[in-house]
Structures
1.
Amino acid sequence: MGILSWIAGPGGWIGDAVKTALTGPLVDGIVNGYKAKLAAGNTSEKLAADLAARELNVEIRERELAVQQNIADEGRWWTAAPRAIACWSFAIFIAKCVVWDKVLGLGTTDPLAGDLSIWAGWLMALWFGGRSAEKIARILKR
């Protein structure tokens, strides 16, 4: 086992950190749901609290499966590297243009042109808007 599998593998600390970050608020929601269930006075409130708790359990499981799928998709360096290289290269370019050129006024960078500017725009849109697009698609599917 290499260092990469230790960091990002199924038992790695990055996978654990992502899982905790995604499921932490949901666990609090489940606890609050059970508290509401216990505090509910009549049957309809108990049913609503039960349904809310079940929905939260399903959402937690969906997120766990999504994290597992990400680890499976990007668990090898040769499958994770191309996306990481493209994203981080463009992030460094944006940081250089914004921080170094504009904020600090220490240089100039030629603007992107041609196909590269189109690809960079799509990369940014997918990088920052991908999750939003998934949420919108899920809403429209319902």
Note: Helices lie at 3-8, 13-39, 43-74, 77-103, 115-141.
2.
Amino acid sequence: MAVNKCIKYLLFFFNLLFWLSGCIILGVSIYLKVSKDGNTISNTAIPGVDLMIAIGVIIMLLGFLGCCGAIKENRCMLLLFFISLLLIFILLLAAGILGAIGESKVKDVVLEELKKLTPLSDQPQNVRDDVETMQRELKCCGIVKGPSDWTKIPDSCRCNSTDPDCKSGAVFQETCGDKIISLLEQHMKIALGIAFAVAVLMIFGMVFAMVLYCQIGRKNSGATTTNA
């Protein structure tokens, strides 16, 4: 029995896209890690870039493995590809469930980490500089209690009354902790959506890989029978 060329090249094309996705994830993750410029607050409150780099590398390797297995009709590579996808699918599913259940705990975890930096005026100069940079970018003041996190309110907290974020007085009242949590919650929803889309692609990849694996097995069995 001949191998279905359509399935073979569909699996190859799928894995090529998979490999390209890994390249993009890896590139973006490295850019984010480099562009942080060592910001202490970003590293404390928004971890996970290193994990994204690891995920990008794994996806690239899997994509390469699947491409080679499909184009060379190598059953060993296809089986390894299927098992790897299945394990990642299970881990992704577990992570998605835990992420959905633990979404309400994100605020508590972030606030606990940020509380360690208060009072801000007692922190080293590099930490204070990072906080002030964040305050200018996010238009906020303080990280847990607001302006009271500072003994002396810095200029980065001051705002113009015409600014929509300047709700009262001449100082931003919203804390940077709340801004960070809001950004994290938005990113989590996007991440869950991406994870669902990737999971669907993985299911198709596993189905194609197993169908091709079985067809190659039947082809090899038929060739052995004919030679015998």
Note: The CA atoms of residues 45 and 180 lie 8 Å apart.
3.
Amino acid sequence: MIDLGLSKLALIGVVALVVIGPEKLPRVARMAGTLYGRAQRYINQVKSEVGREMELDALRKMQKDMQDAASDIGKDLSECVGEAQSAIYGALSSAQHDYNGSDDNPLLNTPTPDQLAIKQKNFRKKKLARMSAVPVWFKHQSGRKTRVISGAARVSRFRPTGSPGAGSFH
């Protein structure tokens, strides 16, 4: 790079003053400044465009890597699903071969409406027995509060009756 110090800039200014003249020097300096500003803006624009292109290339490479990874995962997943599906079909076919052939297989036959009604009735009976099997006294003592009482009412309720000074503080 060119090393421009203060003395060299002063020398360039004096030569420009002599060559161009004092009346045209401000206009030339203004034009040189605008050209220098345009050049800086153009260089900055080129730098930013190159940077964006580099980022875009990096993003394209990342997108390609992600697509490759997604396709690999898709292949692995389809292989696993195919293996599981073949295992399930194999188990079902072996279960059908092992079955003796009568029509009372609960997995293959759909229940009739009469069978569904019996099942619903049995469910209701079981639920009623399950819910009513707990005694009422246990439900009351299980800790569920049916009424909320204040702290003072609770103290007076559970205070022993023969205690001295029940009404005064000590």
Note: The chain has a mean pLDDT of 81.
4.
Amino acid sequence: MSILVYAESEKGKLKKTAFEVASYAKALANQLETNVTAVTINAESTEALAQYGVDKVLAVNNPQLDTFNARTFAEVIKQGAEAEHAEVVVISATANCKYLAPLLAVELNAGYASNVVAVPESTTPFAVKRSAFTNKAFEITQIDTPVKLIGLSNNSFGLVEHKVELKTEPFSPSISENNITVASVDKTTDKVTIADADIVVSGGRGLKGPENWGMIEDLAAVLGAATACSKPVSDLGWRPHSEHVGQTGKPVASNLYIAIGISGAIQHLAGINASKVKVVINTDSEAPFFKAADYGVVGDAFEVVPTLVEKLKAFKAQQ
């Protein structure tokens, strides 16, 4: 039972999720006593995948694939799976992978399990643990199809180094024509993205106005974190909707989530529940977020956050 992973990249650089799916696939490969092959698309370098257990890379380099297209990428990964006779395909839970997952499942005639958080408890039958009910519970899902597609929940398995010898081969799949034309792509530059961030600093209406957002950015800068906001903040136009996290915004599965001036509506908590450590700073000790948080600070954000920034800067200066 061979294993194929899609090692996602952006602007030629492999993303953190590529190493996480590789780590997961290696753990599964050890169970099944098989090897791991990765498909990369226009990645400048693939050598780092060897640190996480990838034995072989099918390197696709085609300028037609510079812009993501779910149907085309699904075709490419399918052909890679067929070339390697893969019976298990592992992808991440990034926005792009969520678009291509159902298409890839159809292409492979595969059973698809999303939000997977652990290697299978059983491989005969093949059963995986998944998060359910907006990360409030877990369920065991059995996949009975000959080919199995696993969508690994971001930041659930972590990066596990397992250095192996890596073989890289050029791979040239056939690409069908499509009628989708990308007119332009607008991206925020020089910032950590919410999807890839280990730490997320988020602000709510407690900041009182967009003019006070500087302290969120200051804390994010010293922590190397992404910035985010609650739905009311984006609805008011204080921050772009691309930073809105929660059930109706972007899901967050960071190692550390810091909520500043956010009361903790159920929709917001549902979207950030997968984060490992949650910290809340709020003047209202009865705010719902305190019940969900691992650590809470009852205090005025306008006093707490600047002091925290200064302490962190002083601590980093000593390193």
Note: The chain is about 30% helix and 25% strand.
